[in-house]
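Researcher: Please translate sequence to structure tokens.
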Amino acid sequence: MDGHESLTERFEERRSHLRSVAYRMLGSLSEADDALQEAWLRAGRADVTKVENLGGWLTTVVARVCLNMLRSREHRREDPLDGQVAHPVVQPESGGDPVREAELADSVGLAMLVVLDTLAPAERLAFVLHDMFSVPFDEIAPMIERSPAATRQLASRARRRVKGGGTVPAADLARQREVVGAFLAATRGGDFDALVTLLHPDVVLRADKAVIPSPEPIVVSGAQVVAKGAMAAMERALATEPALVGGRVGLAMAPLGRLRLVLAFTVTDGGITEIEVIAEPDRLREVDLAVLDA
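Model: Translation complete:
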């Protein structure tokens, strides 16, 4: 078997792994497949006869391609067209496999994909390769032209962003998680009575103008009214997942990992007293979002 045949065989053997790396780097199935295509073209032009660990080498090639794509994406965000607002996340690509993409998003976690998208390209590469795929720092460092120590720092910084830096006591966080989780389950299940039970009788919900297109932000109060509004969002709830929002348990709606809406809750012994719904792109950019540990 010649070098090219061996390369083809190993690439196909590792395609699933390479796609997983690319998907976590890019957050888009169509972009991940584009990255694999470009990586294959690059690999085909290389001399692999002296490569000892071909699988690891292929991972490196895919990671470098993804890094270039992320850097290009960052450049496009920094230079929006006149009169347009740069959205904090990349819009879904058309022409992909929505079922497969939904499966991938679910396997990674919607909140994780959203938080990864807030990282700088080098941070994302260091975190994904090391924390998710156990690639040593001394192998990652040359890809981003940093020392292993500096690469370790980048991964650490990304890890803190992913996990959040909230100081809410564990008992309070557990209570918030219980209540917010029950709110999500009741909304998905269309259980109106359960929702009313979770809400304080005088609960107040505030939603910005992008939640339901309106000239002014929306403010409603009362458990019955807020519960009816939640029932109208049953379909949205299917693409919603608990996350840390400003250090407290909230909800992030992120179909296929693209952040669209955040719910921030105030929970007291009497139940949910306030809900803030955020959907305006400028406000979403400012949200301190982190992954809620399992």
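Researcher: Any highlights?
Model: DSSP finds 14 helices and seven strands in the chain.
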